[in-house]
Write a structure and sequence with these properties.
alpha/beta; 2 domains; 3-stranded mixed β-sheet; 16 strands
Length: about 475
């Protein structure tokens, strides 16, 4: 389907955020990087590298979470859904039948929770230590062959069958990060289509992320569409800016607003291309020793304008079947995250919600509405899942606790104010008592003095009277 073949132009497209699953401990990372290593390890050790460098990026209300915790995944979905995000694109790591960082998605798939749309992006590249800023030692190799292609699609079909899986024209969306590294993509995709037909599953809607050739029709390699992947291809669109004072000269710096304009102004190709919008980018946490890429000047307002242009363009060209990818939901070590942070709070999420509402999408539901209510729709009867009931109860408890805390705080303030008044009044009373006591002592002394004078005068009068009294006859 070409970019111009649309039937519902003007409808708001879906906004799908890249989702990194590396926020939990796995044996491989323990062995390669040390016990307890997760993405948070990279974030927490980061320090500013030059004047004005905003690092580390620290999480806001979700905290330093662990993706093995179901309540964390539910909380992420409540935030995403309530701000207009349509689904998550989970990074999927497959190495000849070995899957990495797979527990969060496996639990989402097995449990049916959270009830939120998703799709997969096969991140088909070898892993090196350099990814964490050290040497170029290979940790796990990405290899390809026909037997592995069959095993891979048979596993993917399990995910495709899930009713939550994102679909384009009825087909499950599957993105590939490094299409240029597939040795024979058409052979691989023919085999995948064959296996899908055998299993009576719709063949995948294949999306090529533009991480290599950026102006080549994806159909030449068997894909249905391409998609931008910011910051790939950036050097072809905009020039870097001068590095800030104190920065390593090997780092590359770009102005965020110039980057947003450059991507937004790209000419539209004759095939379907999905835009990508980045909340920001700064991978110095992974490249502390040099060769990082930094987009400077990102704010929720500038992100909002970039997203607005991307969503409006997709609405015109693809309508409701359109997609705008956001980099990313939670790339904390690369400075790209919709999740609330310690600096902007929910700013980027609120910008996302505002764009979708302004362009005609249904206003997203509030964040504290249980997921079951969102899935069923207003006025639609149906049993609530236990997770929804728990969440509703939890949210009510939070509100009650906040109200109780407010009342306690008010009572404590009133008691403190009364105590302060009492202390002032007591001090004033004590001072008045001391003044009265001093006045009383002075009065007593005066009275004693006057009494003594009176007594001397009386005695003097009496003595004088006795001297002048006539003698008795």
């Amino acid at each position: 389907m070409s970019d111009g073949d649309r039937s519902d132009g003007g409808a708001v497209p879906r906004v799908v955020a890249f989702y990194l699953p590396q926020f939990h401990q796995v044996p491989e990372n323990d062995a390669w990087h040390g016990p307890g290593f997760t993405e948070w390890s990279v974030v927490a050790r980061t320090r500013p590298l030059f004047n004005g460098h905003q690092q580390p990026h620290l999480p806001g209300e979700l905290g330093f979470y662990d993706l093995r915790v179901p309540e964390t995944r539910e909380a992420q979905v409540r935030l995403a859904r309530s701000h207009g995000v349509s689904g998550f694109l989970y990074y999927h790591y497959w190495f000849r039948g070995q899957r990495m960082l797979d527990r969060p998605f496996d639990e989402v798939l097995a449990s049916g929770r959270p009830d939120f749309p998703f799709a997969l992006c096969w991140a088909n590249e070898s892993w090196y230590r350099r990814w964490q800023g050290t040497s170029d030692e290979m940790l796990v190799a990405q290899e390809y062959d026909e037997a592995d292609d069959r095993e891979h699609i048979r596993w993917l079909i399990r995910a495709f069958r899930d009713p939550r899986y994102l679909r384009v024209h009825g087909r499950p969306l599957l993105a590939i990060y490094r299409a240029q590294w597939l040795p024979d993509p058409k052979r691989t995709f023919d085999l995948w289509r064959e296996e899908c037909a055998r299993e009576e599953v719709e063949e995948p809607w294949l999306v090529l992320f533009e991480t290599g050739d950026h102006d080549r029709d994806p159909a030449e390699r068997g894909f249905d569409a391409s998609a931008e992947f910011v910051p790939h291809g950036l050097a072809e669109l905009v020039r870097p800016v001068d590095p800030p004072e104190g920065a390593d000269p090997s780092h590359l710096f770009y102005d965020y607003e110039a980057v947003a304009t450059a991507y937004s102004d790209r000419p539209h190709p004759p095939w379907t291309r999905y835009p990508c919008v980045a909340t920001g980018w700064d991978n110095t946490p992974r490249r502390q020793n040099g060769e990082a890429l930094v987009l400077r000047g990102s704010t929720p307002a500038r992100y909002k304008e970039w997203l607005r242009r991307a969503v409006a363009g997709q609405a015109d060209r693809q309508g409701a079947e359109g997609i705008v990818f956001v980099n990313a939901w939670n790339e904390w070590a690369e400075g790209a995250h919709l999740e609330p942070d310690a600096t902007h709070g929910r700013g980027y999420l609120e910008a996302t919600r505002d764009v979708l509402t302004e362009l005609g999408g249904a206003p997203p539901p509030p964040a504290d509405v249980p997921v079951g209510d969102l899935v069923r729709g207003a006025g639609e009867a149906g049993p609530a899942a236990i997770e929804d009931l728990y969440d509703a109860l939890y949210q009510r408890f939070v509100r009650l606790q906040a109200s109780a805390s407010g009342m306690l705080a008010y009572g404590e303030r009133r008691v403190a104010e009364a105590e302060a008044r009492h202390r002032v009044e007591l001090a004033e009373s004590r001072e008045e008592s001391r003044r009265l006591a001093a006045a009383n002592l002075a009065l007593e002394s005066r009275l004693a003095f006057e009494a003594e004078r009176y007594e001397r005068l009386r005695q003097s009068i009496q003595a004088s009277s006795e001297r002048h009294r006539p003698p008795a006859t």
